[in-house]
Amino acid sequence: MSKTAESELLQSTKQNLQHAKLRIDDLMKDILSKDMEIIDLKETLVSSQQTTAALQEQLDKSNETLKETLKMLDATESKLGDKLNKILQLNNIINLKNRELAEYTEAFEKSVIDHKSEIDVLIAKLTTTDAFLEKNTITYEEEIESLSQIINKMATESEFIHINERQKFEENITKIQDGNQKLQESLDDLQKHFDSLIEENGRKDVQIMLLSSQLEERQRIVAKLDEDKCMLSEELTEVKTYLEEGRQTTESLSIRIPQLSKSIEEARKQCKQQTPSLSGNEKNLASIHSELTQKEASIQEKCTIIEHKQIVINRLTEKLQSITDNKTKLSSELDIANELIIEKQKQFNEQTLLLNVAQQDFTKVHLDITKKQNPNDKNCKIINDMHITIGNLTGKLQTTKDDLITEVDEIRKKYQDLRELCDGIEDVKAGLKNYMKSLEADVDSLNSKLHEEKKLHNNKTTACEENQTTIHTQKKQISQKQKLFETLEEDVMKLSTIIKDNNNRNVQLQELLLKKTEELRELSKKYDDMEAEFRREIEELLINERTKNAILLSELDDVKEKNYSLLNKFSRWI
């Protein structure tokens, strides 16, 4: 070979070696770049975690500030709620007093019908004052509700306020607190006025209670007199009716005694005829009861058989459920095995591609070596080293290839075994379903038979019960008739004594009639005297009440003026 050819071969081998080195360097660079990317990702993760922690701290701080502001707002709301509760309590007290006044006025109207027009005028004035007071309370409630709405709006807006604007918010809160103090002072003044009104109402209540007690006493006296009149009239009517009834009973008893003797003889004959039929019915019932007990025992046995079969069906359903669960598990394992096979095949394909690339490079280098075989040359040594390394790599790749093939074969065997298991499970499941269907058919047939037997049993039991009831009723009728015979005989004996007693009592009742008529005359005189005294006292009380109501109306006008002034102050403050 010429020197030019050798130099060309050397250059080509050098180029191939350089190409291989460059390829290896590129691969190393790719690996380093991937490592750097992983490091960068880790750093970004750490930085993101730090930023999230910082953001969490900021969120916690902002939450704490919001909680503090909410606490302040809750405190102000609680204070306003307490004030509202006080106002509502006062309003409730006023409403109660007004209701009591209305009740007392209604009672007064019922008792005093003659002076109704004057009392209506007074009630109208009181209702106007009550309406005015209710309007004032409603206006105060509306104003307090508007304040609470303003505070709620401030609470909603405070969530979006920045930390730098907190000072402004605190200044607003101080202003609101000052306004609340002023409101408290005005409410205290109102409460004093309400207390004075309550005291006046209490005095009125005492006076009205005294009047009502007097009215009740008078009404009780009148009611007693009315009751006495009614009692006397009722007693008179009862005495008259009792006398007439005594006469009628004496006449009817004299007619009834021979009829009773005839009915007693007829009933005795009927009892003698009914006794033999009852004994035959009792014997028939005993035989029917024995048959029914036997039928109940057979029905109980069939029920136990059905329960046993139901237990077997429940166990089979549990087994089917477990088989379906196992099938789902096996199908999931099959899916995992398929995924493993796919991954192993991908790895195998990647490694085969790398082997092919390395073998191509090696063949090129080997061709260059065969062209120029100089064992003393450095390039030849390098090529031999590379040849050794490539051989080692091919051996390792071959071993990995064999391992992968064995693993794939094992996975395929497992896959096949699992598939066979699934097929066997399906066969078992089908058999169990068929067995369950047969059991259910047996249970249905047994249930239908049992239902028919129960129907027959129920029909017989109802017939027996009806027979028993008829026998029982017949026995009762016989016993009742016997008792009637005894009672009728006793009644006949008693009637004669009653006739004698009635005659004696009629004489006594006539004497009582004369006494009661005299008592009625005396009571009517007393009643007329009481009515005259009562009318005089009511007229005096009405005059006193008119004067007191005039004083109260003047005081209410003063309270109205004070309320208007307070409302004006409150509206200016808002």
From TrEMBL:
Protein name, UniProt field: Uncharacterized protein
Organism listed in the record: Patella caerulea
Keywords, ordered alphabetically: Coiled coil
Gene3D superfamilies according to UniProt: 1.10.287.1490
Coiled coil segments of this chain: 59-107, 166-200, 306-333, 401-540
The organism's place on the tree of life at top rank: Eukaryota
